[in-house]
């Protein structure tokens, strides 16, 4: 799993890549918590380079999403999802729950 | 009917997941499994393994055996463990229409397995352990006529 965090003017951009299975998803969750623990609750997660994500990865995204949305203080939005990830989001009913943008620029600009 | 079989035994903990993924990928490659079906099988197997690791073995580890079989056009993956049995019927189907704020975090693994595979069946046999069998129908591409048996060169497989 690759994870890069960039603090932008109005949000934090997290670029994820590689395979996110149950062995690395907790690490991803921990690094997302580092962002929210620092008081940044507006997050864009770019999934363009994610080749595989299991429900363990979704759990972490949902957990961070809930943290961000608490008290209307922010949101976690997704960008550039590939067909495999889109399929998993669809099967789990999450596609309609997350705000999803075709491009990273659109997602960042939405905040 | 062509039957090919691959087997792997690991200690069931999260660190084994990459090894299991490599095993499934290699078996799919050798058996000429359709690329779309590969993703489904990979994900279903990981979800099943995570359930065994986290629930059957309560993250304490234990023997986990996988068998990958091609039976004609179908792929069957069988997982066997000696952990705590459970009642699949007691696992509630996640309410996907419910707002995410109200949904519990987790509980998607079994749902995904059932969505991704054509058959999912459990057998809990006491001291003999627990067996989970999952079947993906029509997952294997047939070798193109006149070509050698596909496995190492899936690009030469004819479309199903």
Written overview of the protein:
The complex is a heterodimer of chains A (111) and B (160). With 111 residues, chain A is α/β, with parallel strands linked by helices. In chain A, 39% of the residues lie in helices and 31% in strands. Chain A has 4 helices and 5 strands. The radius of gyration of chain A is 12 Å and the shape is globular. The mean pLDDT of chain A is 95. In chain B, strands 1-2-3-5-4 form a 5-stranded antiparallel sheet, with helices on one face. With 160 residues, chain B is α+β, with helices and mostly antiparallel strands. The radius of gyration of chain B is 17 Å and the shape is globular. Chain B is built from 3 helices and 5 strands, in the order E-H-H-E-E-H-E-E. Helices cover 28% and strands 24% of the residues of chain B. Chain B has one domain (3-85, 104-146): 2-Layer Sandwich (Heat Shock Protein 90), CATH 3.30.565.10. The interface between A and B is medium-sized, with 24 and 28 residues.
List keywords for this structure.
heterodimer, A: alpha/beta, Transcription Regulator spoIIAA, 5-stranded mixed sheet, B: 160 residues, alpha+beta, Heat Shock Protein 90, 5-stranded antiparallel sheet, globular
Topology, element by element:
The complex is a heterodimer of chains A (111) and B (160).
Chain A: E1 2-7, E2 12-20, H1 25-37, E3 42-53, H2 55-69, E4 75-79, H3 83-91, E5 100-101, H4 104-109
Parallel strand pairs in A: 2-3, 3-4, 4-5
Antiparallel strand pairs in A: 1-2
Chain B: E1 3-11, H1 17-30, H2 35-56, E2 63-71, E3 74-81, H3 109-116, E4 119-124, E5 130-136
Antiparallel strand pairs in B: 1-2, 2-3, 3-5, 4-5
Helix pairs in contact in B: 1-2, 2-3
Quick structural gist:
The complex is a heterodimer of chains A (111) and B (160). Chain A is α/β, with parallel strands linked by helices and 111 residues long.
């Amino acid at each position: 799993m690759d994870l890069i965090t960039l603090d932008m003017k109005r949000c934090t951009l997290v670029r994820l890549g590689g395979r996110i299975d149950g062995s690395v998803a907790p690490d991803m969750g921990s690094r997302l918590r580092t962002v929210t623990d620092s008081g940044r609750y507006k997050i864009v997660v770019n999934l363009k380079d994610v080749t595989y994500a299991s429900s363990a990865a979704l759990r972490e995204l949902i957990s961070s999403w809930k943290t961000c949305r608490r008290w209307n203080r922010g949101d976690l939005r997704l960008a550039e999802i590939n067909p495999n990830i889109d399929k998993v989001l669809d099967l789990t009913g999450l596609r309609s729950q997350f705000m999803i943008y075709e491009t990273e620029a659109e997602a960042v600009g939405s905040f | 009917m062509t039957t090919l079989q691959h087997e792997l035994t690991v200690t069931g903990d999260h660190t084994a997941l990459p090894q299991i993924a490599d095993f499934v990928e290699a078996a799919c490659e050798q058996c000429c499994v359709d690329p779309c079906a590969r993703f489904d099988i990979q994900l279903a197997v990981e979800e099943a393994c995570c359930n065994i690791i986290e629930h059957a073995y309560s993250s304490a580890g234990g023997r986990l055996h996988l068998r990958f079989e091609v039976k004609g056009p179908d792929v069957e993956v069988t997982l066997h463990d000696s952990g705590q049995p459970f009642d699949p019927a007691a696992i509630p189907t996640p309410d996907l229409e419910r707002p995410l704020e109200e949904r519990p975090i987790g509980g998607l693994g079994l749902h995904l397995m059932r969505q991704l595979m054509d058959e999912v069946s459990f057998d809990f046999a006491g001291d003999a352990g627990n067996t989970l069998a999952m079947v993906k129908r029509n997952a294997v591409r047939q070798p193109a006529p006149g070509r050698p048996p596909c496995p190492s060169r899936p690009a030469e497989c004819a479309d199903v």
